[in-house]
């Protein structure tokens, strides 16, 4: 039997800035933000599609897309067109009107209808490009076809009190969606558990023929915001058949482990999800060779640790250290270092996430920080011990995480 994934395209929505990540998205769109030591956030949606058997992919980009496009060209260039497989980049390029960019998530697909038509597919899987999770989309596709749904919506099962931050589905005992509520104050419970609710993951499965007709009608509606969650899904719930797919049914997890899904859309959430990977047994299994997270792998030498003297020992404890790093006389604890990070003697990194190509000079002490790509930490800089002083130069969150960028370091140096 032909897998449904072979008759499908994964359409990834990757145009949103992700403004809650503050300066981390000043130069790059949220799906292009680094995660987990060597990957980018978008690699999770793309890897899920590839591992599910989908070898036709399209990525709609808009805000500051260069970093994302370059990453996909370098890391996802192994598809072979002669085998009818591909990864297409679809920037907002004023294809419909000289004044009109992508107006909403649905409009990003509408403006590329002719391109999707050329793919010759039966089903389309709409994905958000900015979440961390592992999921088999083939299982969701099968449910969609077997249920006869017009749309199948991927849903997280969350405590009701947390569901107020999501779009929430009310469903009957057959998982048919009876109402869709955006950030409700009193979220409806699931039929099987009054303490739980179903929150939308921003993952939708349609037959392409059905969605194509719906998009054309929506494009002509001057009152529509041309968004899946705001306009199209509520319309189908009201006048068609919308079915909920529970993430627990298709989540790829470690044996006996919990289902893992994270929106790393704030500095605190981004820091926490990265630091969680340094746990003895992390909930997110990046070492799983049966469901790998594919990415661009730079050609770099192995990590190196040098010096073995009192107070000047290159050591990393309960940490992840990527290739190309040189830990020279630095104490690294419960931290995650991306590619090509160089640290120097007498420095201390504690619960710190260090993005690629950072240099930490002698005697610097950094605690509970996120350091942006390419930052040079000056000699003797101390961050994370006095939040009031830190807030004069750096971004300090309410939970005490400090973001450090090049511009912030320049401001700190100017005050010296």
UniProtKB/TrEMBL annotation:
Give the pathway: Glycan biosynthesis; glycogen biosynthesis
Q: Where is the Glucose-1-phosphate adenylyltransferase/Bifunctional protein GlmU-like C-terminal hexapeptide domain?
A: 301-404
Tell me a Gene Ontology molecular-function term this record carries.
ATP binding
One GO term (biological process): glycogen biosynthetic process
Q: What does the entry list as the binding residues for alpha-D-glucose 1-phosphate? A: 102, 167, 182-183, 200
| Keywords linked to the UniProt accession | ATP-binding, Carbohydrate metabolism, Glycogen biosynthesis, Glycogen metabolism, Nucleotide-binding, Nucleotidyltransferase, Transferase
Q: Which SUPFAM superfamilies match?
A: Nucleotide-diphospho-sugar transferases, Trimeric LpxA-like enzymes
**Quaternary structure per UniProt?**
Homotetramer.
Q: What name is this protein filed under?
A: Glucose-1-phosphate adenylyltransferase
Q: Which organism is it from?
A: Thetidibacter halocola
From which lineage does this chain's organism come? Answer: Bacteria, Pseudomonadati, Pseudomonadota, Alphaproteobacteria, Rhodobacterales
